[in-house]
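Q: Hi! First time doing this. I have a protein sequence and I read that you can turn it into a structure. Is that right? Here it is:
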Amino acid sequence: MKTQSSDNNLSHFLLLLMTTAIAVTAANLYYVQPILPLIAKEFDLGVSELGSIPALNQFGYALALLFISPLGDAIARRRVIAVLSLVLVASSFLAAFTPSFVVIVTAMFFIGLSANITQQLIPFAASMVKPQKKAATLGTLMMGLTLGILLSRTASGFVGEHFGWRGVYIMSGIVAALFGLLLYVFLPVNKPQSNLRYWPLLRSTLSLFKRHKALQHFTLAGAFWFAAFNVLWATLAIYVSNGPFNYNAQQAGLFGVIALAGVIGAKVSGRWVDVLGSKTLIMLSLLLIAIGFIVTGIFADNLMALIIGVILIDFGVFSAQVSNQVRVFSVDETAQSRINGIYMLGYYIGGALGSIAGIKAFALFQWHGVIAVSLVFISLSAILNCRAQQA
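A: Yes, that's right. Below is the predicted 3D structure, encoded as structure tokens:
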């Protein structure tokens, strides 16, 4: 067990471990998307019930950002991560052996809650490097997050097609147990930045959001573009499972491989944020996202257009996210977990709303409804980013 302070430099090994752990943990928020048609078939679910499954997953994650993330400033993060790992393992196996729809949505909520591991690791790593290395470190961590989000769909689609959707959660439970053990063994024990008790700690988190106008703009801008991102991914598997594509779960999951452009976006933005500035880079990223949605809308039944659109959307979203987190962490150096928690809370509330809005838009207006809702979200994000430039 490591006992050194987290003030020490972040080693290459520890950065690799934390990046990989972020990838495999974040994957739990997206495993469900390619296998939604399989779950719907087994439990005979309608559109509204089906939409609640990914929404509860995202909602659990959002609640953890408010009620669990701040603990990283007051309790050694290694201890928080260990407890969350145990919950993630238990809820993954609960999902794997669920007998009913009610149990699976409950399991999805706790999977989302325990996936807060990612938002303990990101500020942990950020606190272990000098300010001039923060952008590059966040770029690496976000590359792991991007890989986890995107490859989760490919892995889930493959396992779901060959071993059933329950096999996906058996796999996730085993992986969660392995990385929970590795993190417990190798993570250092950091010195907490605050001695506040739990409820005062939560109140201080909300006061930070109220006090910093810039943080409000950063948070809402990120929430809207992540809503657009989830509008796409909550409906894509359903869309391509029908004509003219008629893809199975494994084929739908392959869009995760196509979207690996997001990895490049995360890494590139970590290098360019110091050159162009966060706000300019975010505006360029939002433009790419909008173009991606427009391409997929105009050429709705064309596979190549869909591929190009997905690439542009994912590249833009993850480029914007790294740029935004650099400026979020600069708001208050002494409250990294709380600042990150409130920002990511808004981000994933946006994601949950996007999932619901996307499936509803698809049910009412099919694919063009999905595109229209997404462009509204991107427009709102761009407006808020412009306002943040004046904050």
